[in-house]
Design a protein that fits this description.
The complex is a heterodimer of chains A (306) and B (358). Chain A has 306 residues and is mainly alpha-helical. Chain A has a single domain, classed as Orthogonal Bundle (MetI-like fold), CATH 1.10.3720. Chain A contains 13 helices and no strands. By secondary structure, chain B is an alpha/beta fold. Helix content of chain B is 33%, strand content 22%. Chain B has twelve helices and twelve strands. Chain B has an eight-stranded mixed sheet, sandwiched between helices. The relative contact order of chain B is 0.15. Classes of the chains: A mainly alpha (306), B alpha/beta (358). Chains A and B meet through α10 and α11 of A and α2, β6 and α3 of B.
Chain lengths: 306, 358
């Protein structure tokens, strides 16, 4: 107090958030596991250089190498066409992770936006929430199927088969999974906008968009975070459902969901075919959940520092 | 209103002029949410606030005090009337002009816990008005934030802390610092001490008084604590069911309330002296406050007034000046012959002293 220069400058909020996040053991573990999974799927293929789509053209050799249990040549075994499972897991993980993350971001952005607007502006509340109800009432799977049928070929022609399918799947999952987030966010906004600090911000003359961004959004972040971490798992599974139905990526294009579904018919004979993709999906979801948990705590100053 | 008491020189300037302010909240009912009525929280309130004075606004819970304060700052879209602050009719400004007018008028809120965003540091909270209305550089802003923290008696090392780490009194200081950040002229204090301990109340009220002396602020001090209002206010307005029933200089009101409701209200103030307390005659009102959605015909107070007469159920009394500087809305408080009484003179002198301290 005596020496002004000795005062600590107001810290950036993100430094506080990071130091709190670091002290959350589960979140750090989750971050490490997720980093390992990301490294596995992105750096792995440079080290394990087997083509995930390679099927031995010699039919006899192919049949001999089918459905092998884990061995030194194939650490995770081979599938019903003799393809290396480790390579397929790496290639599939890239797509699954990307689909999960991007679809989650899309659905959170749409859901968060609609929830914020509906909660904040009373006039838009009715129409936007009825729209949300309408989307909730739509049977999603048929809708996704129709979307795929309608747009897959045109998008594939525009961007190439894989990028086109990726974009379509991600958009389709994002557009059909934002409703829960919108409802959660709207409920929270309704509660928070009646708090006095929002009134105080209005009395200062803060325009509505900045009230939303500075005062309301940070206070609804924690529930968005929970919805988001669950959304990743949902997106990965939905993608595998679509692939399973033959409407996602092409059948020879590996994704974790695809590998899982391919393995299901052999589950009793070769359980490893299901265990590894299932484990990968679960680990991803679990680590993202913990990261979300830690982030939520770190963003709340009342919990921070405890 | 002091013209009669002090014609001519040294007349304090009217900073805020409120004319027939109405704030009705619509009641919607039925399947179609049709507009079926109004809650008349504030129903035709007229008063002026002079520069440098503290106007106390008292009344029981639910009489519209806080709504009145918020409507004056146009935190609600008011139903009717005008609020002229420094020559600008706040009620008629468009949003952008209103935003620019905000720095002159600020508010201190009732609940210091709820009025601070839990996710912002003290520096962010106090700095927010500066971000909105000034183009200071980072260092200048920080210097101003520290200056404000000194003014309200907060340790500068608290700048990085969050509201939940403070006590109620300290939080209220943060709220006051935020209200002061833009050098306002007029501050609405909406029960700033209601949520605090008695010992802390005194600190906060003294702080408000010091700041008024130093910065020449004008307060509208909303409270239900009559003793505290007696301590801080220069003039006091008594509200009942959305209307002002009496508006008088403080000492005269407390010595000799004219309106029956003001009498009843002030008779409820406990006396610190036990001998006086033993002889204190409380006027106990019968019944409940009528619903502001359906106020009684005639005088709003006619359902509970101990001195009620038939005319009270028919006609609504206007707020008229019955003594110099004293306004009462009652059929049975008649204006005396307008003479510049000695009380009016002392009142005006008091205000002059305040003018000099600025």
């Amino acid at each position: 107090m005596t020496d002004v220069t000795a005062l600590e400058r107001p810290r950036s909020q993100w430094a506080d958030v990071w130091s709190q996040f670091k002290s959350h053991k589960g979140a750090m573990l989750g971050l490490i596991v997720l980093a390992l999974i990301v490294a596995f799927v992105f750096i792995g293929p440079w080290l394990w250089r087997i083509d995930p789509k390679y099927v031995n053209p010699d039919a006899v050799q192919m049949i001999k190498t089918r459905n092998k249990p884990p061995s030194w040549d194939h650490p995770l075994g081979t599938d019903q066409l003799g393809r290396d499972m480790l390579a397929r897991m790496m290639a599939g993980g890239r797509v699954s992770l990307a689909v999960g993350m991007v679809a989650m971001v899309i659905s959170m952005v749409i859901g968060g936006f609609i929830g914020l607007i509906a909660g904040f502006y009373r006039r838009l509340d009715g129409p936007l929430m009825r729209l949300t109800d309408m989307f909730l009432a739509l049977p999603l799977l048929p809708l996704l199927l129709v979307l795929m049928m309608l747009f897959r070929d045109s998008l594939a022609g525009l961007l190439g088969p894989e990028a086109g399918t990726f974009l379509l799947i991600v958009m389709a999952i994002g557009v059909t999974s934002w409703m829960q987030a919108a409802r959660i966010v709207r409920g929270q906004v309704l509660a928070i906008k009646e708090r006095e600090f929002v009134l105080a911000a209005r009395s200062i003359g803060v325009p509505p968009r900045r009230i939303i961004l500075r005062h309301i959004l940070p206070n609804v972040m924690s529930s968005v975070m929970v919805a988001a971490t669950l959304g990743i798992a949902g997106a990965i599974i939905t993608e595998s459902v679509l692939s399973f139905l033959g409407l996602g990526f092409p059948p020879d294009f590996p994704t974790w969901g695809r590998l899982l579904f391919d393995g299901v018919e052999y589950m009793q004979l070769y359980p490893s075919r299901v265990i590894f993709p299932g484990l990968a999906i679960s680990l991803t979801v679990l680590s993202v959940n913990y990261i979300g948990d830690g982030l939520r705590d770190a963003l709340d100053p009342r919990i921070r520092g405890r | 209103m002091l013209d009669a008491a002090m014609p001519g020189k040294g007349q304090p300037r009217k900073l805020v002029e409120i004319t027939d302010l109405k704030m009705h909240f619509p009641i919607r009912s039925g399947l179609l949410r049709r507009h079926t009525g109004d809650i008349k929280a504030v129903d035709g309130v007229t008063f002026d606030i002079y520069e440098g004075e503290t106007l106390g606004l008292v009344g029981e819970s639910g009489c519209g005090k806080s709504t009145c304060g918020r409507a004056i700052l146009r935190l609600y879209e008011i139903t009717g009337g005008s609020v002229v602050i420094e020559g600008r009719d706040v009620a008629a400004l468009d949003p952008e002009e209103l935003r620019k007018a905000r720095p002159t008028m600020q508010m201190v809120f009732q609940d210091p816990q709820a009025s601070l965003n839990p996710r912002m540091t003290v520096a962010d909270i106090i700095g927010e008005p500066l971000n909105e209305h000034s183009a200071l550089s980072g260092d200048q802003k920080l210097a101003r934030i520290y200056e404000l923290m000194d003014q309200v008696g907060l340790n500068r090392t608290f700048a990085n802390r969050y509201p939940h780490e403070f006590s109620g009194g300290q939080r209220q200081r943060i709220g006051i610092a935020r209200a002061l950040a833009l050098n306002p002229k007029f501050i609405v204090c909406d029960e700033p001490i209601a949520a605090l301990d008695v010992s802390i109340q005194a600190q906060v009220v003294n702080l408000l008084e010091d700041l008024q002396d130093k910065l020449g602020l004008t307060y509208l001090f909303i409270s239900h604590d009559l003793s505290m209002v007696r301590h801080i206010a220069d003039r006091v307005a008594v509200m009942y069911l959305g209307r002002i029933v009496e508006l008088s200089p403080r000492d005269e009101l407390y010595e000799d309330p004219l309106h029956p409701y003001a009498k009843a209200l002030l008779s409820a103030v406990p006396e610190p002296d036990p001998t006086h307390e033993a002889t204190r005659q409380r006027i106990i009102l019968q019944g409940d406050v009528p619903s502001p959605a359906n106020p009684p015909k005639g005088c709003n107070f006619c359902t509970r007034c101990p001195e009620v007469q038939p005319i009270c159920h028919q006609q609504d009394p206007d707020l008229i000046e019955v003594r110099p500087g004293r306004h009462v809305a009652c059929h049975f408080v008649k204006p005396e012959k307008p003479t510049a009484g000695p009380t009016g003179g002392t009142e005006a002198k008091e205000r002059n002293q305040q003018g000099e301290t600025q």
